[in-house]
Write a structure and sequence with these properties.
mainly beta; about 45% strand; 13 strands; single chain
Length: about 150
């Protein structure tokens, strides 16, 4: 597997396997024997319509693990962690069915995403704790706290 750390400290982008078959492909996501797997909390799916932006969101305890098996998204991550060596950096990752990846977002990073395909994108998210709204925050997409302007 091609494992690499992206610009923001702790953010991991991994190319993952698609087994192509004329009857229908198999798209891997995460295995229990992967170094990225810690524990299982929940898997859920989020649809993102074309040109729609969702976010900004931050989780204080939960690690997000995104794949996009259908469609494509542009994911933007912002690091405002006080003691981070990458504080203030923004990372953009465009991925989906035609550029299949697993993106691991550690706790305390802000993220947002936009549907960039002509069809509704489907995000699969494997998190390490069951969803708990009290450990996350959401702010408006235009909030000046995050120095990023969506186009």
């Amino acid at each position: 597997m091609d494992l690499k750390t992206h610009l923001i400290d702790g953010l991991i982008v991994e190319n993952i396997k698609i087994i192509h078959d004329k009857k229908g492909s198999v798209l891997h996501m995460l295995r229990s024997d992967s170094a990225l797997f810690k524990n299982f909390g929940e898997i859920y799916f989020s649809e993102v319509k074309p040109n729609i932006i969702k976010g900004w969101k931050i989780h204080h305890l939960t690690t997000q693990r995104f794949t996009v098996p259908s469609g494509s998204i542009k994911l933007v991550i912002f690091d405002d962690r006080e003691n981070s060596s990458t504080k203030g950096l923004i990372t953009e990752i465009s991925f989906g069915r035609d550029n299949y990846k697993l993106v691991t977002i550690p706790p305390n990073l802000w993220y947002s995403f936009k549907g960039i395909s002509k069809v509704t994108a489907l995000i699969a998210n494997c998190i390490d704790f069951p969803h708990d709204p009290s450990e996350s925050e959401t702010i408006d997409i235009d909030n000046k706290k995050i120095p990023y302007v969506w186009s």
